[in-house]
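Handout, page 2. Input:
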Amino acid sequence: MTSIEAYEEAADQLDDARPVASFIQLCAFEEEEVAAPPRKLNTNSPNSEAVLSQPVTTGTQMPNSIPYSGEDIGRPPVSGIGPQYIGEPLEPGPEFFKSDLQEGEFLYMPELTEEVPQSEPADIQLRQAESYYAMAIDADKLHDESAMNMYLDAAISAYRYMELVPPQPQTSKGTSRAWEVYHSSIARLIFIADRTGMIDKQVGIKLPVNGGYRIVEFEYANFQRTAEDFDHWQIVGDYQSKYLLTKHRQPGLGVPMVAIRDRKKADKWYPAEVPFAVTGILRPESEVCLYDATTEATVPDGTHVEQIVAKLELYDPRFTGDVEFKCRQVPLAKDTTAPYAYMLSETRGESKLAALHPSRNLDDRGLFILEPHRKGKIPVIFVHGLLSAPYTWAGIANEIDSNPDLASRYEVWGFYYPTGAPFLETAAVLREQLDQIIMEMDPSGFDRELRNVVLVGHSMGGLLAKLQATDSGNVLWEHTAFQPLNTLDTTPKMNEYLRRQFYFTHSPHVGRLVFIGTPHQGTSHTSSSVGHFSAKLVHQDSCLQEAHKELIDDNPAAFRKEFRHRVPISLDLINPDSLLLKGIYRLPIAPEVPSHTILGSGWWSVHDGRSDGVVPVSSARLPGVQTEIMVNTQHTHLNRDAGTVCEVLRILRVHATRPAFAGPPASVR
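Output:
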């Protein structure tokens, strides 16, 4: 497909798109939920603090946005593009130009309704920006690739106007207009260039014109990522999601974007797509010839000219505060929540039936990271619960990324597993992969914080987390079999399979545990409604089923009833009568690993008393934890409730002050 055909196809998608609905609203992979009762946070942790800067019931609008009172700028429609476009472009006013005024300093600028004194060059630049923007819109409607060059020149002229205009204590009509042209032009330029293949990751945007190319050179200002990570681009606008408590956005210079990294062949720990926040500032070169379609005929045949007309500076908004503009420092525009919004828009979730098929999507299972590891940062690993998926942690991850003190100390990892997989095998996979990834990232063993991992588990994920910080001894095997493992009549391969699951020591890399609504003693609610028919729904690996049948046939009196039925999965361990669950409950957590409990109490029943609607309070409690708080919400909301988020962030701040133990590097098992 030629670039023109690709452009026409992208434009057709715009013409045929449904109106409105943000891309989050298009992501309706869950049934509507009943509104939870008012939440009450009871805590015995005196240092619990509020970390959310906005009300948690509604998505907050961008702070300090300036209403535009001038005439509207015509622009191509962008609504309905769905995941290709993150809402409507964000257009903050440039009030930040006055942010660096010293005490006693005053810069004159009339009110919006007054005539602003301008130099002739500034006025010319604004008129050029308006002209190029209007021509770009017309060309865009005709699916003409020259629209990209016109959008570029509109942005260049608008930027030059903002450089030339006198400093202003308030936003003038002309400056507001120039800012909107600048932002909208860059947004459309990148949108079209990305979908027509005009972006060269190593160079920048290459726009064909007059027998050559005009180049917008990429400059990766403060990224640890490489150019190879910038596979696709999305422009940030407005969005909504029930999984995101707050939107962390800041107006300033630049255009907030989301870059997407696709999984590479050599990747081992990355998921299929990794979105991350980027802010782009387009700065023109000092000498630039603006686009003129009438000059094309004057270029001799065979002539190839490449001209760098501008630089697109790309910043990591999490670690950049101010940038230079007109020899002064001004705030950088940023939106650190947008990558999680994009992730949620692309996620269709793991359906309840798909979760029971452990033999599917093997490449997506296990431990995964979202960014390259930085020495000195602590991994916080989120483990989801029964019939769930990692996207449910987006709210907490968003808060970690958006709080500078936490973003500088932690990096978010995740662990994904299917509900229908053998439970102790899943725990063994997490234990082995944690050893392996840490050895690969730091074979010398000098990065102490890498070996100070925080494990946060929701529901059954909490049991998986506990099994990383305890020594099994002979407890689990005694709750499964009547005779020692080495006396079984079985093959060496099956013997090793059983030993790997039932005999282990705690991981030396785990520094803290957080349990959220974890059924340490099971739950009668779920076991009666789900466990009753789980045997018919779960589709285990056929090879494992045959090996298990052979093991039972060769040792008919060796195993207890629970294991004779099948190798226990998550659905089996939620039963309060499960002997294996009772064995896990008896295992003590390593004394050097502090632990915390967050439990829900938004429900009450005659049988269980207080609960979160699934897990009774009595089952969620675990003796020996350092802190325990009770949140008035239900089980499915618990890991994204405001009270839970506050407590997790408090725990992470405490953990960041705890010296990491520098033990010897563990061998890969």
